[in-house]
Amino acid sequence: MNRKISIGIAGLGNIGQGVARIIESNRDKILKKTGIELDIRSVCIKDMQKKRTLPTDAYLMTDDYNRLVDDPQIDIVVELIGGVDAARDLIQKALKAGKHVVTANKAVMAKHGEEFFRLAEINKVKINYEAAVAGSIPVIRSFDVSFISDRIISIIGIINGTTNFILTRMSREGLDYKDALKQAQKLGFAEADPSLDVGGDDAAQKLAVLSRIAFNTDVSLDDIYYEGITGIRPVDISYACEMGYEIKLLAIARQEKGRLEMRVHPALIPKSHILASIRDEINAVLVTGENIGEQLFYGKGAGQLPTASTVVADIIDVARRGEMFYEYDRYEIQSIDDLKTEYYLRFDVDEMPGILMQITTVLTKHNISVMSLIQKQTDSHVLPVIITVHKTDEKNMQDAFKEISSFDFVRSSNLMRVL
Amino acid sequence: MNRKISIGIAGLGNIGQGVARIIESNRDKILKKTGIELDIRSVCIKDMQKKRTLPTDAYLMTDDYNRLVDDPQIDIVVELIGGVDAARDLIQKALKAGKHVVTANKAVMAKHGEEFFRLAEINKVKINYEAAVAGSIPVIRSFDVSFISDRIISIIGIINGTTNFILTRMSREGLDYKDALKQAQKLGFAEADPSLDVGGDDAAQKLAVLSRIAFNTDVSLDDIYYEGITGIRPVDISYACEMGYEIKLLAIARQEKGRLEMRVHPALIPKSHILASIRDEINAVLVTGENIGEQLFYGKGAGQLPTASTVVADIIDVARRGEMFYEYDRYEIQSIDDLKTEYYLRFDVDEMPGILMQITTVLTKHNISVMSLIQKQTDSHVLPVIITVHKTDEKNMQDAFKEISSFDFVRSSNLMRVL
């Protein structure tokens, strides 16, 4: 039996316009496939004066999102205004008013997701947010439905398209960080202010959202250790390449025996690893579950149509089955200090005798065992010393790294983890 | 609010036992996450005398599946008996009795899927079959939910683990087909009678199931052109490798302007293509949609726990939202003769003068333009001539191939398509 579902959209930027266009041009197709007739009833915009090209002029237009919340005819509120505070206020009010919510807003989901889930459960509605992480890749829904009876062991994601694009350009074309960033900005893969992307904040927010549903636990942004890619230089990439690695910004979450480890940082990935082949602005998420084994999802992480298409799928999904149940599991959050992994170190040193001895002495003192050490002649008086070391504790490694970095002969340095 | 859902399982082989074990050991977790209490009420087995290790002895046991259909307390029938005729009978009866159905049976879905969809719609129930294609990879559900508002352009899948394992061994270890098959059988990746896998039937059935939901149209198995991998020799793999290709058994479906092309055959894939890196028994499906762009899914295509875990997810999904709507789109089915692609040809020829002239004369007569031609000296008097040609029509290519193959100097030959 066919049902009509009325939608209120808050925010009519790039994504909002895409959502309206997809709904209008696919209404019949969606009705045929689902028995649901989607009706955009009302749209909330910031500036009523601004001219827009809309697929129809039948929408009620307002600049006050409370009108969507107060309209008893609206079943689903689509939050596309972005940011945290206003978005949170709107989502809270909509859920309390018994309306389903669909959002593409990773920042508000990372910060207030748990609160929304509780409100949704109490009010017998649902909040869908697939587009908040990795654009059109159906990873949230897979955790929510397909992998629901499995125990997830780990998530390893390349979930920030900007940094993946920059690192790919640095690796492929030998560009330095600044030029690669400029290229990304020119092509629309990086914002004018790229700090949230290149600093790792964006990936950390997405990892919080992913971890919450994958491990069915509450996650605070403060629980996630993160680093960005601004310290990576072409020399790191070329030495990594020589040693058989690609460098990617990874978001990693892994549970073991009630402990949850979450971290975002650049990592060296063996070239034979499937994640090493994820290039340009593409996103990928590698999920490992007890029953399902390894699963990779790969696709466009952003863009108007992939994201808008995902928002519309969320709308249809919530219209089909709109109730939320949840009760969290508890994990102890593992500190980054307790991480045990392999490391890559670069020290740019003045050319003088005895340097390698001083460096290796510090490593030996910390019981850190060297896997490989490369020191090559260059034209300048500053030489890069590249070291990879066997598994050791993060805390121990950081102590040794700081000690070596503080030598007078060290001009600059970099530490990265190996996947 | 919590709800209890009662399940009847027909068939208690490897998958059925896995389903029972996952449900029993995750009951509380599933309840917490979904508000649904799963209760296995009844199990239908073939031989009542056979001893089984079940997680509990609380199940009603029967050897007549009609008992599941007739039991008014059962909400969901899980069909795991396999084969076509009995499975079809059970599924039909269960749907008519107003019960949801979950199945992992690709053969019955490929052949009778449309009939089941209509029965489900009429009886306001749902049939879920994610495990029928590519094991635990959530590709059916993605078409059903995540990509529902998009128009799918193409599917390219490596969806038969047996053939992918065999081709990987042939490529990696230089094994010939028979030895690779033996290895696959020893490791449990191939059946004692492997004909359905290596002949392409299995992949064709899965492609029928995938195409039906991806393109929202009815698909008959007869519409699908298919070939297997038994004609591939190590020499094909090594020349393909030399020219920069891997050989995989691909299942391809593509729509353009109301025409639907569906085919299963070994194909040469450029090594830089993501599908070239899918190894061993792993499955992968590359989906291209108008809005979402390219999406890859990758994971285990078979095995007890991945498959059982997917069946349980299907059970939970159907319990959460159990109605089916559908109305098909219509496509004209494109004949394989109308395919336009690049080809790889191998002719094993007697060593004598003028052979290349005779071969290329036939190609020229058919307006087929050569991309590369390799003829190498070997120890024997039979030399392989390896040719790749630019895009041409299948019909035209087959005519030329037959003409060349019929020359007296041609001992054996092979034709493969390039992706």
Characterise this structure:
Two copies of one chain form a homodimer. The first copy, chain A, has about 425 residues and is of the alpha/beta class. Chain A has three domains: about 5-130, NAD(P)-binding Rossmann-like Domain (Rossmann fold, 3-Layer(aba) Sandwich), CATH 3.40.50; about 140-300, Dihydrodipicolinate Reductase, domain 2 (2-Layer Sandwich), CATH 3.30.360; about 340-419, ACT domain (Alpha-Beta Plaits). Chain A is about 35% helix and about 30% strand. Chain A has helices at about 15-35, 65-70, 85-95, 105-120, 140-145, 160-175, 175-185, 195-200, 200-215, 235-240, 305-320, 355-365, 395-405; strands at about 5-10, 35-45, 60, 75-80, 100-105, 125-130, 150-160, 225, 245-255, 260-270, 280-290, 295-300, 330-335, 340-350, 370-375, 380-395, 410-419. In chain A, the strands form two sheets. In chain A, strands 7, 8, 9, 10, 11, 12, 13, 14, 15, 16 and 17 form an eleven-stranded mixed sheet that branches. In chain A, helix 3 links the parallel strand 4 (about 75-80) and strand 5 (about 100-105). The first copy, chain A, is elongated and about 80 Å long. The mean pLDDT of chain A is about 90.
